[in-house]
Specification:
Number of strands: 8
Order of helices and strands: HEEEEEEEE
Shape: globular
């Protein structure tokens, strides 16, 4: 097994297991349709909506999404969204995918805002 194949396998199995750091999210494709799978969510604190504008703030999170046709996604499109709790214990809300921070054979690290 090549390193890239192992990264892809581990990203959709070991890394996102619910008994490790994975949690169930719903990915909403801009073109229509949804898909549920396990992802790793790193919740961040509020940030200003724009540089110098502190009165309006947004919740941010970094979400690792496996690169897979059924247990993740294969591409990110502007306008995609993810349903998740932006804070532990909060209600699930829909967050907008703002940026792809990094990607490899295993998956995508996305920044989302709600």
């Amino acid at each position: 097994m090549t390193l890239r194949a192992r990264m892809a396998r581990d990203a959709r199995t070991i890394l996102v297991r619910a008994d490790h750091h994975g949690e169930l999210v719903t990915y909403r494709f801009r073109a229509g349709g949804t898909r549920q799978f396990l992802a790793v969510v790193n919740r961040l604190e509020k940030t200003g909506a724009a540089p110098g504008i502190e009165q309006i703030s947004v919740l941010r999170a970094h979400v690792f999404v496996p690169r897979h046709a059924t247990n993740g996604i294969t591409q990110v499109t502007t306008g995609d969204r993810i349903d998740l709790a932006m804070r532990i214990g909060d209600e699930v809300t829909t967050a907008r995918v703002e940026d792809v921070l990094s990607q490899d054979e295993g998956g995508f690290l996305l920044e989302v805002h709600a």
